[in-house]
Automatic annotation (TrEMBL):
It comes from Geodia barretti (Barrett's horny sponge). This is 2-oxoacid:ferredoxin oxidoreductase subunit alpha. The lineage of its organism: Eukaryota, Metazoa, Porifera, Demospongiae, Heteroscleromorpha. Residues 655-802 form the Thiamine pyrophosphate enzyme TPP-binding domain. InterPro entries: 2-oxoacid/accept_OxRdtase_asu, 2-oxoacid:Fd_oxidored_beta, 2-oxoacid_Fdx_oxidoreductase, OFOB, PFO_beta_C, PFOR_II, Pyruvate:ferred/Flavod_OxRd, Pyrv/ketoisovalerate_OxRed_cat. One of its GO terms (molecular function) is oxidoreductase activity, acting on the aldehyde or oxo group of donors. Pfam families: PFO_beta_C, PFOR_II, POR, POR_N, TPP_enzyme_C.
Length: 926
């Protein structure tokens, strides 16, 4: 164990030690524990070393290296008799009251212990108590060591480099363990390969500390020499399995929002975005950091609609936000993969601690009923192959797949055999590459319940999606017969999944006896190790690992447990969630529960002790006179005049009245969720940048619940168009005030005047970064058509606010009001409130990059956006083509992005991966 303050180099030291042990031929299991804190709070790393294959950690410590007093107070009693504590001798006089990062309950427990022993609560006292238990003590002044090295190397800078405590600690421990020094120095060179000067200084420090320990320390009975090394052994961290699995199975788009412990996977994917391929142009994975998790899954869905294998990764709080979009994907049979790295909940819970809390939620997340697969990996090596399976399941059955990982796996470091991409099969299911006739039905009823799947951009493959119930074409329907047919079609997939997925991929038996453990996920490792420990004592315990958790393989699990007289459920949650599922699906109740929910990962020692004693530890239904008719007509005319091929265009819409827009235009129509149209649309555009993508939605949809996505989209400047239907009310919910209704206005549907200030859509778009900002009027269709054409042609993110009177609920901003009927007086004829900016010589265009002109154009746009009441401008407020779109920033990292975007990439040849990961695997080999 190595412990110290967060940010002091604990992880670096543990990684060096692990790498050295692996190069000497040992098998490694390392776990990292840390507080939700950037710097200063307690952090520690435990590395278990064995000459046999191991799957988990143990509860005891043989050698502890401490950089601070807190590590000694917290962990010294975990060190076994005959073990050792290597510590900074400058800490001897530190009292427990001097350690401000220790929490109150822990301090109280330690004080009681000292009081009963009649000792002062200091480091020296607790170390003396450890010595009395038979623990060897090895004090070294870390600062003194740095000073001595600085003097010897004639380099005064070394004296103040306290971050080198980590190198001192790991080098001293290696000298104490009599490990050969060569791998130590080569590991330092590897870890600091990009910082040669740092590597040189660390090598000097390591050489001195190693020599000092070898010459000065004695009496320690534990040694690590070299052992025969298995060929093709890798040293990997928790995210390597899923990340490399995604690369090799063809995932080419991963939006994500940063969250512990999931972020490392996306960072690794982005760091290795350009992919070598076999016999083809280089591929790439586009990784996008989104504004929130709703945007992440929305983009993922948008990407999947282009035929791109798309996924996102998150943890419990983020997965909670994804629930509605998950249902949309299930209803629209969109194949996505969501990797959920579970942690302790609920709410924020313990952000950096372990838990298997999300099983029941993953199965039931989202309102209504829709098919999904919930699949759990048991270890890092398994997760590589499982990731490929999850994408195949998503494609073949056209369902969202939730791949359950957790903090245990995410924060582990292990040795394992090199991943073998030859064992990976890629199956895209019924994804179509060619459609001969123009009568495609996306949700066609078939004998197996799975419809041939088109993708955005495929000629003759036009389809429509919606969050409402739909017919075979994807158009909204409320017909009860069709509803039953579609529900049966979707939900029937669950039986087909269980019938066609091989048994060994659903549940695995590690031998069944009278006493059998059932479990899932990362509990596998400590269970397997504990069972082996029991076998050495002549105690036989079986184990059934369930991987397919939904749909649940009831018949298979019942068969695997048929000879078990005692069932023991082992999980890292409070309620025994798998036990509930087992009882619900098989009628068998676990006899015992071994549950851990402290936030710390299970060890095989705990499972061993518990098992030994069985402890319980398209019909248009808009209102007559609705302005939406004019907007749809304008969009249709604009696309016709631009001569955009139907299969190269997609309309994404939100919900409400405007949400139905996507059903009325004969291009791809994607009817999404409330406020989530932008993430869906951005995902499609980024994975298939050749598509013409238009997003459309209401003012409540885009500027209320979707406002966060609006601002974040402006920051990106993706080359697409967003049209907002602006009428001041929520139409389908009976006319409540939307964000654009003015303060104090009382429509006939409001019981009292509106109490909120309005959002200024033009101003918000300008300051958010949209590079084309305009306003149109739904009753001036020709002018609106020209604005839409200009917006679509603009090389960047275009926003078009369309004033659209609601004849049913907004009796203030009516068509007559915009026409100025109320402005007529005896001396003055009525005049329209609306005027065109271009008629007044207004110039919205930025002609020169940088300088005062940009500020001038932005300022004049903001000033004009404030005009209302008797003068309301329409036209283009701001246009800047000199700001490169987001796609150009992707090209900076992935040069062939436009020529070979994610949706166009070939990921398999003869059902085998085309991605060549040999270089990555080579770098991980020891």
């Amino acid at each position: 164990m190595i412990g110290g303050p967060q940010g002091s180099g604990v992880e670096s030291a543990a990684n060096i030690f692990s790498r050295v042990c692996a190069r000497l031929g040992y098998r490694i299991f390392g776990k990292r524990e840390f507080y939700s804190n950037i710097k200063g709070e307690h952090s520690y790393f435990v590395v278990r070393v064995s000459d046999k294959k191991i799957h988990s950690g143990v509860s005891s410590v043989t050698l502890m290296v401490s950089y601070d007093a807190e590590t000694i107070f917290r962990h010294c009693f975990e060190v076994v008799p005959g073990g050792g504590i290597l510590y900074d001798s400058d800490l001897a006089d530190v009292s427990i009251d001097d350690v401000h990062t220790l929490d109150g309950p822990f301090k109280a427990r330690i004080r009681r212990m000292f009081l009963s022993a009649g000792k002062q609560p200091t480091v020296a006292s607790i170390l003396e108590m450890s010595r009395a238990r038979g623990v060897m003590l090895y004090p070294v002044s870390f600062r003194g060591t740095l000073a001595e090295i600085a003097q010897r190397e004639d380099n005064p800078k070394i004296k103040g480099m306290v971050r080198m405590f980590n190198t001192i600690g790991v080098s001293l421990s290696m000298g104490l363990l009599r490990m050969p020094p060569g791998p130590l120095f080569s590991s330092i060179e590897f870890v600091f390969s990009k910082k040669p000067k740092v590597a040189m200084l660390n090598r000097q420090v390591a050489n001195f500390a190693y020599s000092y320990a070898s010459a000065s320390f004695s009496g320690f009975r534990h040694f690590l020499s070299s052992v025969p090394k298995e060929p093709h052994t890798m040293l990997v961290q928790g995210f390597h399995g899923t990340a490399i699995g995604k690369m090799v199975c063809g995932c080419r788009f991963q939006p994500y929002y940063p969250i512990t412990p999931a972020s490392d996977e996306s960072v690794y994917l982005e760091s290795n975005a350009i992919l070598d391929t076999i016999g083809d142009r280089p591929g790439s994975t586009v990784v996008v950091q989104t504004e929130d998790e709703i945007s992440a899954i929305g983009m993922t869905i948008g990407g999947a609609l282009t035929g791109t294998r798309s996924s996102t990764c998150t943890s419990g709080p983020g997965f909670s936000l994804m629930a509605e979009c998950l249902g949309w994907a299930g209803m629209n049979e969109v194949p996505i993969v969501v990797t959920n790295y579970q942690r302790s909940g609920p709410a924020t819970g313990l952000p950096t601690r372990h838990g298997q809390d999300d099983l029941l939620f993953a199965i039931h997340a989202g309102h209504g009923e829709f098919p999904r697969i919930v699949y759990a990996s048991g270890d890092i090596e398994e997760s590589f192959y499982d990731t490929a399976r999850c994408f195949n399941y998503a494609d073949v059955y056209q369902v969202p797949v939730i791949h359950l990982m957790d903090k245990f796996l995410a924060s582990s470091t292990v040795t394992c055999q090199r991943f073998d991409p030859e064992l990976v099969e890629i199956d895209r299911g019924k994804l179509l590459e060619r459609i001969e006739r123009d009568d495609y039905r996306r949700f066609e009823q078939t004998s197996d319940g799975i419809s041939p799947r088109s993708k955005l951009g495929l000629e003759n493959g036009i389809f429509w999606n919606t969050g409402d119930e739909s017919d075979e074409y994807g158009h909204i329907t409320e017909d009860p017969v069709t509803r039953v047919e579609m529900m049966d079609k979707r939900m029937g997939k669950l039986d087909r999944i269980l019938q066609s997925v091989p048994d060994e991929d659903q549940a695995v038996s590690f031998g069944v006896s009278e006493h059998t453990v059932v479990s899932w996920g990362s509990a596998k490792g400590p269970i397997v190790d504990a069972i082996l420990m029991l076998q050495d004592e002549g105690i036989k315990v079986g184990f059934v690992q369930i991987k397919m958790l939904h749909p649940f393989p009831s018949g298979l699990v019942d068969f695997l447990l048929k000879d078990a007289k005692t069932i023991i459920d082992v999980e890292a949650n409070h309620s025994g969630q798998l036990g509930k599922i087992l009882r619900q699906n098989t009628g068998r109740e676990p006899d015992y529960y071994i549950l851990k929910y402290s936030g710390r990962i299970m060890t095989c020692t705990e499972i061993y002790n518990a098992l030994k004693h069985y402890k319980t530890d398209v019909h248009n239904d808009w209102c007559p006179g609705c302005g939406d008719f004019g907007i749809v007509n304008a969009i249709q005319m604009a696309m016709a005049e631009l001569q955009i091929p139907r299969h190269q265009a997609a309309i994404f819409s939100g919900i409400g009245c405007s949400g139905k827009t996507s059903h009325f235009i004969n291009v791809y129509g994607i009817h999404t969720l409330h406020g989530r149209v932008l993430p869906f649309a951005q995902g499609a555009k980024l994975t298939n940048p050749q598509m013409t993508v238009v997003a459309a939605g209401g003012d409540g949809d885009g500027l209320g619940i979707g406002a966060g996505h609006f601002v974040a989209a402006g920051r990106r400047n993706i080359d697409m168009t967003y049209i907002v239907f602006d009428n001041g009310v929520y139409g389908l919910t009976k006319g409540q005030a939307s964000p654009t209704l003015r303060l104090g206005e009382k429509t006939k549907s409001l019981p009292t005047p509106n109490a909120n200030y309005n959002v200024n859509p033009i101003g918000l778009a300008v300051v958010s970064g949209f590079t084309f900002v305009a306003r149109g009027y739904s009753y001036d269709v020709r002018h609106l058509k020209d604005l839409i054409k200009a917006a679509i042609a603009h090389p960047g993110l275009a926003f078009l606010d369309v004033l659209q009177p609601c004849p049913t609920y907004n009796d203030i901003n009516t068509r007559d009001w915009y026409a100025g009927h109320d402005l007529a007086t005896e001396s003055q004829a009525r005049h329209s409130r609306i005027y065109k900016l271009e008629d007044q010589g207004y110039d919205p265009v930025v002609h020169y990059s940088g300088g005062a002109e940009v500020d001038e154009r932005l300022s004049q746009a903001l000033i004009r956006s404030l005009e209302w009441d008797s003068k309301i401008p329409i036209g283009v407020f701001y246009k800047n083509e000199l700001v490169g779109p987001y796609e150009h920033r992707i090209i900076n990292n992935i040069p062939n992005y436009m020529e070979n975007p994610p949706a166009a990439q070939s990921i398999a040849r003869n059902a085998k991966p085309r991605t060549d990961i040999s270089g990555l695997l080579d770098s991980l080999e020891i």
